């Protein structure tokens, strides 16, 4: 189980390998990407920031909850901070399990809870107006 | 007592710094935030914030102690 905030580019292959087990018949991953628009406004890029000690603590709680709720073998989540461009990976969630139902459900749980609870903030730069902190107006 | 405050996101932008230690008589974070909001014209209402003391979530009626580190957490937007 690993929940990490990083200012480095998210590298998929090593993350995937770290959570695969011989008993895992299923692996589900989710990639959250920087999109070129939000609510119809053209987005030029994003800046994420985080209160890292609490983000990693709360993130680990979410992974533990997922392991209690679903029959999974391993799970990890990495969230990027700093300046990101369109198409870059902002967040990655990977889950391995014996069977696919648990893997899909746990992955969904982890990304939903991460978005709702982990202290990470997003500042969107727009092509047509000044940058704003998302959810703060 | 001395309280350390760390600012993030919109609060950091509005305060202009990311960390400070202040001398305060505020008994709890609710009073502390209301003092700071008035002083620095923070736009976020307390009902929009969560709170952390010493690197974990805390309640607004927490009794502040000398040396505590407080973080007011603006609405999150990860993912």
Please give a quick description of this structure.
The complex is a heterodimer of chains A (137) and B (79). Chain A contains 3 helices and 9 strands. Chain A is of the alpha+beta class and 137 residues long.
Describe the secondary-structure layout.
The complex is a heterodimer of chains A (137) and B (79).
Chain A: E1 2-6, H1 12-19, E2 26-33, E3 37-38, E4 41-50, H2 52-69, E5 72-80, E6 82-84, E7 89-97, H3 100-117, E8 120-126, E9 132-133
Parallel strand pairs in A: 1-5
Antiparallel strand pairs in A: 2-7, 3-4, 4-6, 4-8, 5-7, 8-9
Chain B: E1 2-6, H1 9-15, E2 19-23, H2 29-40, E3 50-53, E4 56-57, E5 69-73
Parallel strand pairs in B: 1-5
Antiparallel strand pairs in B: 1-2, 3-4, 3-5
How would you explain this protein's 3D organization?
The complex is a heterodimer of chains A (137) and B (79). The relative contact order of chain A is 0.27. Chain A has a single domain (2-127), classed as Molybdopterin biosynthesis MoaE subunit (Aldehyde Oxidoreductase, domain 3), CATH 3.90.1170.40. By secondary structure, chain A is an alpha+beta fold. Chain A contains 3 helices and 9 strands. In chain A, strands 3, 4, 6, 8 and 9 form a 5-stranded antiparallel sheet that branches. In chain A, strands 1-5-7-2 form a 4-stranded mixed sheet, sandwiched between helices. The longest helix of chain A is centred in the middle third of the chain and has 18 residues, at 52-69. In chain A, helix 2 runs antiparallel to helix 3. Chain B has 79 residues and is an alpha+beta fold. Chain B has one domain: Roll (Ubiquitin-like (UB roll)). Helices cover 24% and strands 27% of the residues of chain B. Chain B has helices at 9-15, 29-40; strands spanning 2-6, 19-23, 50-53, 56-57, 69-73. Chain B has a 5-stranded mixed sheet, with no helix packed on it. The N and C termini of chain B lie far apart (38 Å). The model of chain B has no long low-confidence stretch (mean pLDDT 98). Chains A and B meet through strand 4, helix 2, helix 3 and strand 8 of A and helix 1 and strand 4 of B.
């Amino acid at each position: 189980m690993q929940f990490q905030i990083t200012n480095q580019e998210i590298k998929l292959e090593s993350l995937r390998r770290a959570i695969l087990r011989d008993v895992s018949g299923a692996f589900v991953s989710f990639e959250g990407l920087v999109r070129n628009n939000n609510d119809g406004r053209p987005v030029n890029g994003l800046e994420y920031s985080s209160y890292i000690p609490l983000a990693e603590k709360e993130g680990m709680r979410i992974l533990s909850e997922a392991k209690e709720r679903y029959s999974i073998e391993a799970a990890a989540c990495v969230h990027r901070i700093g300046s990101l461009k369109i198409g870059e990976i902002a967040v990655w969630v990977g889950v391995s399990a014996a069977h696919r139902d648990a893997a899909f459900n746990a992955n969904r749980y982890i990304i939903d809870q991460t978005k709702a609870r982990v202290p990470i903030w997003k500042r969107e730069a727009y092509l047509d107006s000044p940058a704003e902190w998302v959810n703060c107006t | 007592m001395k309280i350390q405050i760390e600012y993030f996101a919109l609060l950091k932008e509005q305060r202009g710094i990311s960390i400070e230690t202040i001398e305060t008589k505020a008994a709890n974070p609710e009073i502390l935030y209301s003092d700071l909001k008035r002083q620095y014209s923070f736009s976020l209402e307390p009902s929009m914030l969560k709170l952390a003391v010493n690197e974990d979530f805390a309640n607004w009626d927490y009794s502040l102690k000398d040396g505590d580190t407080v973080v007011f957490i603006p609405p999150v937007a990860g993912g």
